[in-house]
Automatic annotation (TrEMBL):
Secretion signal span: none
Protein name: DUF2029 domain-containing protein
Highest taxon of source: Bacteria
Record keywords: Membrane, Transmembrane, Transmembrane helix
Transmembrane segments: 6-24, 36-60, 107-130, 142-160, 166-182, 189-214, 220-239, 277-297, 324-342, 349-366, 386-404
Length: 410
């Protein structure tokens, strides 16, 4: 349980630091007004990301855990050896992802290199996010960037857990920035395609809702269809139907999600684990995201896109039976920059609580042996199970709260 305690203490410390900054928010914004963004973000990243990485992995000598130890090092090593994804080694991520991991391993063959890659890529995502929200005044935007680097989820998912989920946001925002600069739909389509190739299959979920927000949806659809045919044809020619391996990820039961918290109260009668729920979850995610996009399409694009994104991946986090709370990292930047009302004490408290619960629960759940609750009696079988179920239910409720906030124009 030491890992759980460390994560809890870090999460509480980060939350306290955010609270101290917010108490002096007006003074902080006034000070940031004349400060260059590169310097502020760079120094804060150095203190809150690079120094913890050096302290944990180089000074204390700890090895990365979670996904890095589980399969990322295996995928990256296979790619580094020149093996072909899906044919020579199994992978549940998109085709370019292991080769990006291999780049870091080629420079430093150590699991710590993968963790460092995650730290660097998160910085790129934050810089692009800062540039994306040009409608927010400089001082407020810079303060939000600093607050992001202080979030428990940002620190723990990146440095300790080595999670890459923020990459989806990185490539999507990068594509939008390229389109803003060039005005060419083909550039937007190529950027989206690159994100699909470099991350994971769930990156496709935002495409339909996104079409409601772009100026030329039919043109974008045509470009995406053309690029998709070429890419799928190439993959089929190389590995046959083995490129479907990422879809198997949906078959893995995880928690917390809506099904995991409802299942015991209906005496395990909903058929959790069946393929039907994967399709229901897909329809709910895309349909709910599309509904939010239609509600907010007339807002400034940065706001509308962020609300759609939080809607899609917030829903995915609670309706997909393979989802768990690490997926907060998929939508943490737009949630912080566009959804949280930083003038509302309630929003601030709920946001910090959401962060704490999401970073602590995965370790707690895994170390309990991935409990699955089939009846109410399973919940009350022990105090640890009651605590686990309470954490699950709280995360699901808070996720729905933020999805609901994303669908509101105010």
């Amino acid at each position: 349980m030491s890992v759980i305690l460390i994560k809890l203490l870090l999460a509480l410390g980060c939350s306290g630091l955010i609270g101290l900054v917010l108490i002096r928010r007006r003074q902080a914004e006034a000070w940031l007004e004349t400060r260059p963004a590169a310097t502020v973000i760079g120094v804060t990243w150095f203190v809150l990301r690079l120094l913890p990485f050096v302290g944990i992995y180089l000074i204390l000598g700890y090895q990365p855990v979670s996904d890095i130890q589980g399969y990322l090092i295996r995928w990256g090593s296979s790619a580094l050896e020149g093996k072909l994804i899906y044919r020579d080694f199994e992978c549940t991520y998109s085709p370019l992802y292991p080769y990006l991991i291999a780049v870091s391993l080629g420079m430093w063959y150590n699991m710590k290199a993968i963790a460092l890659l995650m730290v660097v890529m998160e910085l790129v995502a934050l810089v692009l996010t800062f540039r994306f929200f040009r409608n927010i005044p400089h001082s407020r935007r810079l303060l939000l960037a600093v607050l992001y680097l202080m979030t428990p989820a940002g620190l723990i998912f990146t440095v300790i857990a080595g999670q890459e989920d923020i990459w989806l946001w990185l490539f999507a925002v990068g594509a939008c920035l390229l389109y803003r600069q060039t005005g060419k739909t083909v550039v937007l389509a190529l950027g989206i395609a690159l994100g699909l190739l470099a991350t994971k299959a769930v990156d496709v979920l935002y495409l339909l809702p996104f079409l409601f927000l772009v100026p030329k949806p039919f043109q974008l659809t045509a470009w995406l269809a053309g690029i998709g045919v070429v890419l799928l044809g190439t993959l089929y020619g190389l590995v046959g139907l083995e490129f479907m391996q990422p879809i198997r990820e949906a078959e893995t039961l995880r928690a917390p999600n809506l099904l995991s918290v409802v299942n015991p109260w209906v005496m395990n009668s909903i058929g959790r684990g069946t393929g039907t729920w994967n399709w229901i979850g897909l329809a709910a995610t895309v349909g709910g995201g599309s509904w939010i996009a239609l509600r907010v399409w007339d807002l400034p694009f940065e706001q509308a896109f962020s609300r759609m994104w939080v809607g899609v991946y917030g829903l995915m986090m609670v309706v997909q039976q393979s989802a768990y709370s690490n997926y907060l990292f998929l939508f943490l930047p737009p949630l912080l920059f566009a959804i949280v009302n930083w003038d509302s004490t309630r929003d601030i408290v709920l946001f910090l609580l959401f962060n704490i619960l999401c970073v602590v629960h995965p370790s707690f759940w895994w170390r309990m042996g991935n409990p699955e609750y089939l009846t109410p009696g399973d919940i009350f079988a022990s105090s640890l199970r009651m605590l686990d179920y309470t954490l699950q239910l709280s995360i699901v409720v808070l996720t729905f709260y933020w999805v609901g906030r994303a669908g509101r124009k105010a």
